[in-house]
Amino acid sequence: xxxxxxxxxxxxxxxxxxxxxxxxxxxxxxxxxxxxxxxxxxxxxxxxxxxxxxxxxxxxxxxxxxxxxxxxxxxxxxxxxxxxxxxxxxxxxxxxxxxxxxx
Length: 103
Known about the structure:
By secondary structure, the chain is mainly alpha-helical. The protein has helices at residues 12-15, 39-54, 59-69, 81-87. It is globular and about 40 Å long. The relative contact order is 0.15. The model is unreliable at 96-103 (pLDDT under 50).
């Protein structure tokens, strides 16, 4: 779960970029894995999500948002949760602030 206190104020300017996201054309399940998804199936779903990100005009804003609020699930800005944690210098697979393993 994202850290709510890191979210921007609920004003349109903070989220306006989302209207232009390539992901608007996709099933949201493409970007978020079911709890039991593992291995090749997960990698395949993430590759499909990242294909949307690769052609997205707001991919940089999306990634910036995910890093700022520490989105702990899903593909955001072309990176999965572990890739974003690594970019932030955090331990992949561990939900920040909890010490628990993220799925």
